[in-house]
User: Fold these one by one.
Assistant:
Number 1:
Amino acid sequence: MMHFGDVPVYLYREPVDFRKQINGLGLIVETAMGRSIFDGGVFVFCNKRRDKLKVLYWDTTGFCLWHKRLEQDKLMWPKKHDDEIINWNHEQLDWLLRGFNVSQLKPHKPLKYNAI
């Protein structure tokens, strides 16, 4: 399983033609997402059938492209809203890869106390 620490994870909600490789996906990052691939983010794309995803990132020495294909299930890809881009953390990406519906998982609310 991948682990990216505190690196931001960006999901592109529109389905992507999976014939696209590093250059084509990098162009989506820069033009449609308005981000720089070189800023340290991880960019996640899904196909129309929701049975494949690609993860693209720059690791300071070159591009990395990771591809996952599900054999029977579908990815619980977030529904499209006005915003085409979702900003997640590595834990949410891990949940997606493990088959969870991330939009329904809610962590405990943080508590703040001044005294015991």
Number 2:
Amino acid sequence: MKVLMLHGINHNMFGKRDPKQYGTITLDEINAKLTALGGELGAEIQTFQTNDEGAMCDRIHQAYFDQADAVLINAGAWTHYSYGIRDALAVLTCPVVELHMSNIHAREAFRHHSVIAEIVMGQICGFGADSYLLALRAGVSAAKAKSSA
């Protein structure tokens, strides 16, 4: 099983950026946790981070051609306004799980709305780095259910 984890804008700064919201864990540490859990779940985890919206769309398109079994995305600030990323995700036929480390619904008003929420399978937010692991479990479970249907 192939699962793609997409990390959005500014996530390369985890560990340095706003520790109150995001803790001190780094992106490399998050990816290591995902890879370890993926091994337990029988899933190969590919990760991708960019601060370039076009590069994110290109990577989503590639996931379609690679026939990813599931896609996890923490789009960061793009969550709230990127219709380009939303439209790219809409092309995918595999389960897509939106996730956020912080509870976007308990933060600034502009963060309460997700333009991608209505096209993804579900949204996990507010559990810090564990949001990634919960999303991986959800994505793998959905991909297994889809393949057995």
Number 3:
Amino acid sequence: MTLLVAAKIVWAAGCIGWYVIRLPFERKVKRERVIDARDRLRELVLLSCSTLGLGIVPLLWATSPAFDGANYPYSPVQFALGTLTFLFSLWLFRRTHRDLGKNWSVTLEIKDAHKLITGGVYRHVRHPMYSAFFLWALAQLILIPNWIAGPAGLIGFGILYAFRIGREEKMMLDTFGDEYRAYSARTARLIPGVY
């Protein structure tokens, strides 16, 4: 097996792992009553940008010659670093879901019995699920030796993040007020102690 085929397998396994982690949580939260849902159409567009960058473009790279002209030389170090980064992103993704429980949602929503989660990985950053997605995008950049498919995840998810984070923080302030202000003052958004 070539290193490139191995990279495609790791990328595909990571995507499957992502889905397997999320599926039970999607089933659980469907029963929860939503009391505040914002910007449904905007959310759909942003989720589509993320899916394009983290899913569709790399899938085309992995299964067709569509982006072959943008491939570049690949090393075992890149493969190892990309694989480890993807594994860490999956761990963090699983942990954020576990810590959030029924408070989790794909879009901007507040549930009937929504609680502000400040423990677990949320003790260190306010948005560790976004951190996990950025790690996935970074893993894709390292793992996929292609100038189009590699950075597509950072671009796609970066668009979602840039156009959602302000609205999400406003929703949390509207819902939790001073409790969220105090939490924001002691935690970073994505990277502990940095940002």
